[in-house]
Each structure stands twice: as structure tokens, then as C-alpha cells.
Write a structure and sequence with these properties.
Blueprint (H helix, E strand, L loop, with lengths): L1 E8 L5 E8 L7 E6 L9 H12 L4 E4 L2 H4 L8 H18 L6 E6 L2 H11 L8 E4 L24 E6 L7 H9 L5 E6 L16 H23 L2
Parallel strand pairs: 3-4, 3-5, 5-6, 6-7, 7-8
Antiparallel strand pairs: 1-2, 2-4
């Protein structure tokens, strides 16, 4: 696996930082773009392990920063700006990265995945699968404001990872939402995991093991579910 730092142009002269992780052998035609959550950036350990691990497995990847992180701000950009960044990242990965791709999958931690899913529901993001590294189904501890309406319009395969201690995604509520989706979906539950899949030390499970599990499940999903649906 080899990494390459790149910049992605936006309208108005702005740019986004991104990191390509590319297989050194056995490259597949499916590429994965990963976006970060509201309170972190593309260097979050989960996103680095996820992207690098997929590249080691033969899948080209690209992780990128949203504009507000490029400017050192803590408050996320307005939805339109976040969507613009996703569109630019997808366009760069498919047209300007020099990577030969036949299909693209969108992945995201929390907000990054939610934004991609809203775009897919409105047919504004040309990807063939979605991976949610913790979906923010509702505000912390508040199940009265579900962010689920657009999910029912999605038709491409989806893979959800959810921790049993995630205050932004009550597991039983998520399962009820998934049962009503028309698109193919898979759910992997991380016992004891919070919104970032941190697990209490008392459980004796290293963080690296959790990341390895997420990676293994993703590779299996890409090979089986996505291959069958999008061959």
C-alpha cells in the first residue's frame, strides 16, 4: 500500500486536502471515498486504519477534509458546502486521481456518512454503495428527532456499523428503521462501542481489534453483497 497526498479544487479558489491510499498489487476496480465526522478530520485513527486497510486488501481509497477543517474551524459548514465537498471529492477520485475505477463507494463517519446518504437519496452522488461508520440517527439521547426520512428513498446497498453504547444511534431504533428500508442492507453491531467504537477497557478488547473487525466486515461486504448487486 502506498499513500499520496493530493488537493481537490472547489469553486472560488478553495481547496480540500485528501489522502489517496493505493494497493501496490492486485488492485480492484472498486474505490472507496471516506469522509470524517463533525468533531474530527480525515486523520481520525479509525478512518486511517479503515482506508489503509482497504488499500492493503486491493481497494483504492481516498479520505478528505471538509472545508471548515481546512480553515481550522470547529463548526461544520452549511449542508450545501458539505455536499459541494463530497461532489468535488467524488469527481476528483473518478476523473483526476489517475486511479482506474469502475465503481465508487461512499463511506463516512457520522456526519460524513449522513451527508453522503442525503445526496444519494436525491441522486446527487454517483456511488454504488454506502458505508456508515456510526450513523447519527438522532441527537445525543434524543429519539424524538430521527434523521431517517431520506434513508427510505435510497436504493443502493448499505452497510451500517453501530455500537451498543452509541448515544447518537439507539440500536433498537436503528433496527426498526432498517427493517423498513427498501435497499439491501447489512448491520454489524459492536458490543460496548460508543459513537466512535471506543470500548471500555474492562472488556479487554484492543482498539486495533475493533478496527480490524470493521475492516474485515467491510471487505466481506464489498466482495459478496456489492459484487452480487452491482456486477
Amino acid at each position: 500500500m502506498k499513500r499520496r497526498k493530493v488537493t481537490i479544487p472547489l469553486a472560488g479558489g478553495e481547496i480540500l486536502s485528501a489522502v489517496l491510499a493505493l494497493p501496490t498489487a492486485g488492485q480492484k476496480g472498486v474505490g472507496v471515498i471516506t469522509a470524517h465526522g463533525a468533531g474530527n478530520d480525515m486523520e481520525h485513527p479509525l478512518l486511517v486504519a479503515f482506508s489503509d486497510g482497504l488499500a492493503e486488501a486491493g481497494y483504492p481509497t481516498m479520505r478528505f477534509n471538509f472545508p471548515y477543517k481546512e480553515k481550522g474551524r470547529k463548526t461544520p459548514d452549511r449542508p450545501e458546502k458539505l455536499e459541494e465537498a463530497w461532489e468535488a471529492a467524488c469527481r476528483y477520485f473518478s476523473e483526476d486521481s489517475g486511479v482506474e475505477l469502475t465503481r465508487i463507494i461512499a463511506a463516512g463517519k457520522s456526519m460524513g456518512g449522513r451527508v453522503a446518504s442525503t445526496m444519494v437519496s436525491g441522486q446527487k452522488l454517483p456511488v454504488e454503495g454506502l458505508i456508515f461508520l456510526g450513523y447519527p440517527l438522532h441527537p445525543a439521547g434524543d429519539l424524538s428527532k430521527l434523521r431517517d426520512a431520506h434513508l427510505y428513498r435510497i436504493e443502493i446497498p448499505m452497510l451500517f456499523f453501530a455500537g451498543t453504547k452509541d448515544r447518537l444511534c439507539a440500536l433498537e431504533t436503528l433496527q426498526m428503521v432498517l427493517a423498513k428500508l427498501k435497499a439491501p442492507w447489512n448491520l454489524d453491531v459492536i458490543e460496548g462501542g460508543d459513537h466512535s467504537f471506543h470500548i471500555p477497557k474492562s472488556m479487554g478488547i484492543p482498539e486495533s481489534d475493533v478496527y480490524a473487525r470493521i475492516l474485515e466486515t467491510t471487505v466481506q461486504w464489498l466482495e459478496k453483497t456489492l459484487g452480487a448487486c452491482c456486477s
